[in-house]
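Example record

One chain of 297 residues, shown exactly as stored in the release files.
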Amino acid sequence: MKFGSVDNPTDIDFTLPSDHPDTIKVLKKNASNKMDVFVGCAKWNKADLKGFYPRGTKDELEYYSRQFNSIELNATFYRIFPPEQFVKWYDKTPDNFKFFPKLNQEISHWKRLNDDVAPVVDNYLYSAVNLKEKLGCVFLQMHSNFAPKDFDRVVHFAESWPKEIPLAVEFRHTDWYNDKTIAEDLYQLLEENSISNIIVDSAGRRDIMHMRLTNSRAFIRYVGANHQSDYTRLDDWVERLKIWKDNGIEHINFFVHQNIEKESPLLSAYLIRQMNDQLGTSLKIPNDDSDGQQTLL
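Predicted structure tokens for this chain:
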């Protein structure tokens, strides 16, 4: 994931912004006594996650899903898979595993939420629902040149989305978050339709770090810089998640990317250790098996 990559991470101020004033209000409004946490990578293929799989691994997804409890499914951005493929993925993974698939690029980047996008969405969901209870939260990532001038398309898309399927959205044009009037209109729309506002933590795009939750789900896409600062940044995130937990957050979905993806499992394992220690979760630590498998940390 090259989005927001920088040459010199030491030049970046990685301090997490303060919460938007309405974030805690939203959490308290939707407060839950139960919290589920899903942490994962963006890909499971061996070519990207070099060193993660033991020698002789025959099925990468089957092994990955025994190490992590979720995957940010980016493959669905590039191709609309048939229902049979989703059934295969469902059958290969444990009961507690969840997929968080990205909406296809035809929806977000080609048709750009135009009026004629509905059949493509329907076709996508017709396949994706075969994940059944393993379907976590579908997410929409818009191109960085998709600007608020097309806000009416977002309104129609949000209001038309089937409410039984959780949705999260990511906007990359700076005006969505830095034009106060537009931002407040967007937050209200997402709140009214119970759509999660994705937080992207990337070195080169601090301008879109909004820290505004719009429902009881924190959907975080974290992009490391393949630098030691990646770990202290995760420490800061755990501290923020503790605050959100204390205010009743229900879902934490945290997906770790790296510009060199082979280090993603390392960062994810570190994050899980910190969450288990600081948030009281009991997530499995990847590759921390008792059967002699290689440990990442």
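Notes: Residues 290-297 have pLDDT under 50 and may be disordered.
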